[in-house]
Automatic annotation (TrEMBL):
Species for this entry: marine metagenome
Single annotated GO MF: xenobiotic transmembrane transporter activity
Bilayer-spanning residue ranges: 170-193, 200-219, 225-247, 275-291, 303-329
Name of the molecule in the record: SSD domain-containing protein
Keywords: Membrane, Transmembrane, Transmembrane helix
Listed InterPro entries: AcrB_DN_DC_subdom (IPR027463), Acrflvin-R (IPR001036)
Pfam families named in the record: ACR_tran
Cellular component terms (Gene Ontology): plasma membrane
Length: 367
């Protein structure tokens, strides 16, 4: 259903002064004032009757102001007191007045509203179609600095309002706070693990969770919408759980003296079943919401798809990639230690050799 705030209003008479009226000293204001005085009247005086004021209005007789034809028969008084026919100094046109004028930021606006049938189409698809059909050049409906314009409607600019505007602001706010959320996740992982590198290994599965969410939308035949993005962001804090459990198990075995390769293999074997069962139960629990056809829950289906397929895809990546990254991290750390030890040992050897080669000062006798 489409509706707008524009109301045509009632029909009105618009007076336009002719060029020859200016030679008589008449202005449009004089013309409008005399027409108003003739048909509506001019207050001559007020008479007090008890507690009421009685206005005495002077105007044309009723039989001379019944129709628009009387307007063309009236005479207009010029600045020198002479009277001229109305048709010789003015022209009458007919139009419609505005019943109401809405303004925003001192600009006239007309609001167009519509309800989207989410069963048939998504709001994002409607928004994209409107932007393609209305906006020209680099203008955009969502860009307040470069508002949408169309050469067919000069002087008119199109912009968002209502739910779509709030959604655009929400997306901008989300992208501003996502780095902060990732930094907090990194800090929460770095403190108990006592490492700056292992949190990066754990968080490496987050992008793959987003990939799984996108693939899930393609499989389910759903487009990526605003609630899909919310699901992907929520997924960032869920997919790290399996990686954290796996890395923590490896660290415990290494503290017990198990070689690193055996610790990684044992952790993958021990935590395989819990990780798979956790992801499988999460996916199965979201199936009723993903397959629900109730229009009232349509907005939550994209979020459920993002969570379900993102967790499922990230689990597979976790079992394959996290152990490999852990081994690569250990190799990198050993290489750095060996390189630093070699550099420091060489410098120390050269320093000791230099000190040994320096001649001792000769002792001077006392006479």
């Amino acid at each position: 259903d489409l509706s707008d705030s524009f109301r045509a209003g009632k029909q009105e008479i618009q007076l336009n002064i002719l060029p020859q009226a200016k030679t008589l000293g008449l202005t449009l204001r004089d013309l409008a004032q005399q027409v108003r005085q003739a048909f509506y009247g001019e207050e001559a005086q007020r008479i007090q009757r008890g507690t009421d004021d009685v206005r005495v209005m002077v105007r044309y007789p009723e039989n001379e102001r019944r129709s628009l034809g009387n307007l063309e028969d009236m005479y207009i008084r010029s600045s020198d007191g002479s009277e001229v026919p109305f048709t010789s100094v003015a022209k009458v046109t007919y139009g419609n007045s505005y019943s109401s004028i809405h303004r925003q930021d001192q600009q006239r606006i007309i609001s167009v509203r519509g309800d989207v049938n989410r069963v048939v189409v998504t709001p994002e698809a409607v928004f994209k179609a409107l932007e393609l059909s209305l906006c020209e050049g680099k203008t955009s409906l969502s860009n307040l600095q470069n508002m949408c314009e169309n050469s067919q409607f000069p002087g008119v600019r199109f912009t968002l309002d209502g739910e779509q505007l709030e959604r655009t602001k929400a997306i901008a706010g989300i992208f501003d706070t996502v780095p902060l959320a990732l930094l907090i996740i990194f800090a929460l992982l770095a403190v108990p693990l006592k490492s700056y590198m292992q949190p990066l290994v754990i968080m490496s599965v987050i992008p793959f969770g987003a990939v799984g969410a996108i693939v899930g939308h393609y499989i389910m035949g759903w487009p990526l919408v605003f609630f899909s993005l919310l699901g992907i962001i929520a997924l960032s804090g869920i997919v790290v759980n399996a990686s954290l459990v796996l890395v923590d198990n490896i660290n415990r075995q290494r503290k017990a003296g198990v070689p690193i390769f055996d610790a990684v293999s044992n952790a993958g074997t021990i935590r395989f079943r819990p990780i798979i069962l956790t992801s499988a139960t999460t996916f199965v629990g979201l199936i009723p919401l993903m397959t629900n056809k109730d229009p009232e829950t349509f907005m939550f289906i994209p979020m459920a798809i993002s969570l379900a397929f993102g967790v499922l895809f990230a689990t597979v990546i976790t079992l394959l990639m996290v152990p490999s990254l852990y081994l690569m991290l250990d190799d990198f750390q050993n290489w750095v230690k060996n390189s630093l030890a070699g550099m420091l040992g060489k410098d120390l050897f050269e320093k000791e050799s230099t000190e040994a080669a320096m001649p001792l000062p000769e002792a001077k006798g006392v006479s």
